[in-house]
Design goal:
single chain, alpha+beta, Elongation Factor Tu (Ef-tu), domain 3, six-stranded antiparallel beta barrel, 2 helices, 6 strands, globular, DUF1905
């Protein structure tokens, strides 16, 4: 299906839990919305296979009304393996997971 590569800044959600995210570039989000099957998953989420550095994981991206894009959660295990911290600009590869 669709494959995308982009750079984005890793940021820390200000609420409880210490979740880290990247906001996908708006153009990438537009392409994903075009390719995605509407209503297939809850809350407008899309299943993806994400990769940064040598680490690959399966997750979901979630729509963000404020930016008009999607948010990609970057779990602690990935941040630890790739030595990532909030504020860094990081290269990501995403593939839509058609399963």
């Amino acid at each position: 299906m669709g494959e995308f590569e982009f750079d984005a800044e890793l940021w820390l959600y200000p609420g409880k839990g210490g979740w880290h995210f990247v906001t996908l570039p708006v153009e990438v989000a537009r392409q994903i919305k075009f390719l995605a099957e509407p209503g297939k998953r809850g809350w407008g989420s899309e299943a993806v296979i994400a990769r940064t550095g040598k680490t690959e994981w399966t997750t979901s991206i979630f729509p963000d009304k404020a930016s008009g894009s999607f948010l990609l959660p970057v779990k602690a295990e990935v941040r630890r393996k790739e030595r990532l911290a909030a504020g860094q600009t990081v290269r990501f590869k995403l593939s839509l997971d058609g399963d």
